[in-house]
Design goal:
The chain is mainly alpha-helical. It contains 17 helices and 2 strands. It has a single domain, classed as Up-down Bundle (Na+/H+ antiporter like fold), CATH 1.20.1530.20. The protein has a two-stranded antiparallel sheet with strand order 1-2.
Length: about 325
């Protein structure tokens, strides 16, 4: 069975499920995870390696040098305030709103919003403005480098609030923050260094197959959301599906808030950053949020659900903010 692309070429439908129709695959994986009983060791143990696969194959296709080159471009002068908004400003807004409407979800929603820009966000921003890729790569690089510091600080601040949250791992706030920072740095550094090693060892092979790595990154994401959803299944069976619907509604609202705030900030940015920034804010690295929630807050079901369920609205949200930002940038030029 085949489907026709705009260029006239025919691509098997199965291949398009890891391409133009990936959003269908992702939604199906989430639903399948909620209805598939998996051993706890498998459901929770597959989350970390799946995230590693996403980062490894994405970086292998793009190249680590592309991130370093983006940091030397003209967008670097605006990176500091944009990074502040991405890692601290917007997550604080999301956390404050959630604390008012659904206190039990505050940690999970704040954690989700505090994630660095997703590695696929530059590619998604390029769908609306091809020249936005370098600015998007720069945002990914800086937010990924700084999140091992900002995320533990935000999580410690949330847990210090008078909210009825599960006890976590039982560690002191300082040890918890240090452990989280080290874990995040490890989860980001291992795929990055592995990519550097492979590219240096087999440069010709990597360049020849560069376009073939993206489906493997997307497949890793499918495995991640499937196993993370499966890890939530026992609790949903116990407490009922209403918890899942609550999380989906909150994740959708958070995506809307992130989109509106990032688009407002983007109004003051040049064209490329005006598109790449909202895409990076909305399409965050929620896979990292899944691993942190599973590792640091195993008893906080809303924290894990928030990281998993946000995949549903951000697939639509990134298309929305990208198209709006691109139209606004085009109008400013005219």
């Amino acid at each position: 069975m085949t489907t026709r692309l705009g260029s006239g070429r025919r691509v098997p439908v199965l291949a398009s499920l890891l391409g133009s129709r990936f959003w269908l695959t992702c939604y199906a994986a989430i639903l399948a995870g909620f209805f598939t009983p998996l051993p706890e060791w498998l459901a929770s143990g597959a989350v970390g390696p799946s995230l590693g696969g996403i980062l490894f194959f994405t970086t292998l296709g793009v190249g680590t040098d592309a991130f370093l080159l983006a940091l030397s471009g003209p967008a670097r002068t605006r990176l500091l305030p944009l990074t502040f908004w991405k890692l601290l400003g917007i997550p604080i807004i999301i956390g404050a709103i959630t604390a008012l409407v659904a206190p039990a979800w505050t940690l999970g929603m704040t954690l989700m919003a505090a994630m660095p820009a997703g590695l696929s966000s530059p590619t998604l921003s390029a769908l609306h403005r091809p020249s936005a890729v370098p600015a998007g790569l720069a945002l990914v690089a800086v937010t990924s480098l700084l999140c091992p510091v900002t995320v533990p600080l935000l999580m410690a601040a949330v847990r210090a609030l008078p909210l009825d949250l599960p006890p976590g791992t039982g560690l002191s706030p300082l040890r918890m923050a240090m452990g989280q920072g080290a874990y995040i740095a490890f989860m980001l550094a291992v795929p990055w260094l592995s990519t550097r090693l492979v590219r240096r060892s087999f440069p010709a092979w990597v360049e020849r197959n560069r376009l073939r790595f993206r489906p493997f990154a997307l497949l890793s994401l499918v495995i991640l959301v499937f196993t993370a959803a499966a890890a939530c299944r026992p609790v949903l069976v116990t407490v009922g599906a209403s918890l899942g619907f609550t999380g989906l509604a909150l994740a959708t609202g958070a995506t809307l808030v992130m989109g509106v705030v990032s688009l407002a900030i983007a109004e003051r940015l040049p064209g490329d950053e005006a598109v790449s920034f909202p895409c990076g804010v909305v399409f965050m690295n929620n896979g990292l949020a899944v691993t942190i929630a599973a590792k640091s807050y195993p008893d906080d079901v809303p924290a894990l659900l928030a990281a998993v369920l946000v995949e549903v609205p951000i697939l639509v949200g990134v298309s929305w903010v990208g198209s709006v930002a691109a139209r606004r940038a085009l109008r400013r030029v005219k």
